[in-house]
């Protein structure tokens, strides 16, 4: 069975340059491979070499404790009761993302953020800081000069612009010391995880994979996870996954969704959203959604059928002297446009959309941010 599958895979490998389907998306944009992910790292460190912009030690005692602990590790023992006055030192948190399949010796970028009341990290140097994962193991070591990009001079140097100076970055500032174990391809199978749960899209992905590589290669476990059989050897598996991620799949149409920003009044819809018949009164603003019935009667003797059509209409009133009538499809986009035309506020939009949703006239998911 493995030999037959490997030969079938190699045959499809030779035919990889197939033209993509129209209006389709790559599988890598629709789903991710289970286990192929980043891992967050963090660590506590010290930035030194600041130009008097470090922590105020009277308000951040942990900075002094960190320096004294570091000096003891370096063999420097301070007399009991010594009061350190540090202005060029800042306690920081160092964060980074460990990419999938990162190997010891590779470098990653880190972000350095002040924990105390340091005025600026510009010009500082991060001392060697171990970066730990959620399991408490050290996966990388960070050190280097902190680059702060929040300051700059205006035209002619007459104007200085200062932004956020308490956060900086170190490009390639951490060296990976430990790799994360991966079970990719265990039991000669992987799990594809769709970015959004959708049973129709999962079925289309399974159909596309089986049409490409043969029946039984992909099996949908639910509306989000798809199990895919892979070749046994690592090199064939890598090539197989490369082709798999490049497959073109036409996703199913997403559920209707309306997003409203309550602060700015911005309304975003992922598709045309129609409204059912209803009427709303909000303060001095009224909204009436109905239907204009039209009957098309055929001429005598034409053997045609009588056709009755209903064209939805939307009428908005803010005062007796200002009326806006929306005819045709009565989509939510037209309603929002008409409400903006008569000067509806973001609070009016919010109240009306919530009322439409509660009344069942808005056939879409409403999300307010």
Characterise the protein shown here:
- The chain has 7 helices and 21 strands.
- By secondary structure, the protein is of the alpha+beta class.
- It has 3 domains: 102 residues, Aspartate Aminotransferase, domain 1 (Alpha-Beta Complex), CATH 3.90.1150; 130 residues, no CATH class; 106 residues, no CATH class.
- The strands form 6 sheets. The protein has a 6-stranded antiparallel beta barrel.
- A hairpin with a 2-residue loop joins strand 17 and strand 18.
- Helix 1 crosses helix 5.
Backbone CA Rg: 31 Å
Order of helices and strands: HEHEEHEEEEEEEEHEEHEEEEEEEHHE
Structural class: alpha+beta
Percent range of helical residues: 10-25%
Low-pLDDT parts are: 4-22, 321-329
* Distance from first to last alpha carbon: 53 Å
Subcellular location: Bacterial flagellum basal body
Protein name: Flagellar P-ring protein
Main location: other
GO molecular function: structural molecule activity
